[in-house]
Amino acid sequence: MAKAATTGAAAAGAGLMKNTASSSAFRCLLKWLVLLAFILLAAHCLYSAVYSAWVSAGAAGQYHQGWVRWAAGQVCYALASFSFGLGLFRGIQTFPGATGGSAALIVLGALLALAPYVGGLVLIDGCLDRGGSWNRATLQCSDE
Predict the structure, then answer these.
(1) Closest by Cα among 33, 35, 77, 30 to 52
(2) Rounded-to-integer distance, Cα 11 and Cα 86, Å
(3) Quick one: residue 111, left, alpha or beta (phi over 0 = left, psi -120 to 50 = alpha)?
């Protein structure tokens, strides 16, 4: 009888160990896939930033400032994506007890993602306060 109880407990323990190992493998795979996805998104944003900077450095046109602002925003989005990816990479392995470092990286990513939007609002507000009109297509103020 005692041997049967011990065997049952050992079998339950082995099942728990197998479930834990499966969960650990799933978390490992998930954290690498999430990191890869955010790195690819960051690479796409950096490509867009480089292209925008290249266009803005071309022949002097009327949209130079718009392209420069777009490039700066894309750099912020790339850094935000990389920060989110690293924060989630670190947080997935320790979930549900996230560490302070992973939370700080996620918050930093959120701030970087909001920076171009807030910067645009500040530019629009300054333009309207001076009596100009904001042109969304060129991302510039018209003081006409």
Answers:
(1) 77
(2) 38
(3) alpha
What is the residue type of 6? Answer: T
Instruction: Identify the CA nearest to 68 among candidates 54, 78, 80, 81.
Output: 54
Question: What whole-number distance in Å separates Cα of residue 29 and Cα of residue 127?
Answer: 49
User: Alpha-carbon distance 138 to 93, whole Å?
Assistant: 44
At residue 50, the pLDDT reads 92
Strands 133-135 and 140-142: antiparallel
In the chain, domain spans: 2-142
What is the rounded CA–CA span in Å between residue 132 and residue 122? 14
Could you tell me the mean pLDDT of each successive run of 10 residues in the chain, 144 residues long?
53 52 81 93 94 80 79 94 91 76 90 92 89 84 77
Main-chain phi, psi angles of 132, to 5 degrees: -90, -175
